Amino acid sequence: MKDIPDQYDGEYVVLIDAKIVVQFEMKRVDGASPEDVQIWFLAEYRREIGQRRYRILLDRAADAARAIISN
Fold this sequence. Notes:
Blueprint: E1 2-5, E2 9-16, E3 20-27, E4 35-41, H1 42-49, H2 53-70
Antiparallel strand pairs: 1-2, 2-3, 3-4
């Protein structure tokens, strides 16, 4: 869903099964593990991000994920 690269690490937001959003940071080194992992239900995450362009993209991604799951 979202990738914010930095010189030394990156922040990622991943939509899982159109129900869960996982947000984490990952260092850019071999063998790194995710840090600062946050797990949200989709509805909670939608409220958290507010009414902006990113929420529209999230809703579209969730709709597409539901369509894939239902097939």
